[in-house]
Specification:
Helices cover 43% and strands 21% of the residues. With 223 residues, it is α/β, with parallel strands linked by helices. It has an eight-stranded mixed sheet, with helices on both faces. It is globular and about 45 Å long.
Amino acid sequence: MIKLSIIIPVLNEEQNLQILLPYLQKHTTTSTEIIVVDGGSSDESINVIKRFNTRLITSNVGRAAQMNAGAREAKGNRLYFLHADCKPPYNFETLILSSEFQAGSFRMKFENRHWMLTFCAWFTRFNWQICRGGDRSLFVDKLIFEKLAGFKDIPIMEDYEIVSRLLVDGQFVVLLDSLTSSARMYEKHGIVWLQLVYAYIHLLWFFGANEIALKTKLKNILD
């Protein structure tokens, strides 16, 4: 019987998948399934997924659409949404399945130990909506996820949006262990600069900015 379904949305993530998939297989039992949802990769992602004998689903590109597609196919009664460039603690399966809460996430730390990233990651211990982005990962009971109609089909901030709904009834927990996240975007654009950009985008979203406009603005800034 499948108890946990890990759902990983990907687009051109062959290098990260070669690290993540064997790690997940090593630290899970047969009661957990791994589903990778590809949004149209042009690299070797598909071949990597097949090589590690995980479930492959194709979907329209977009994290919300991909994660919803994976959830529809999942056999587990608890879903775990994970980014390809993040690595949960080795005992994540036990921690997630033994949680009395219906939804939650891990604390986070970055591979890069830059002071600003360490400072920002420290706040992920708090049960605040702004600290609950997708790179922290998310577990949720499938029945609750279906009741909420899944992720809202928006191009950005879909992770923060669903957590805002999960927090309403208090059934959301931040587990004590930490997930390790890649700092590749920070290293590419500059750590301090990108953190300021993200803070700006969060502020606009908090005050009701349209998600499509936010996605365009973020793309224009980073390009």
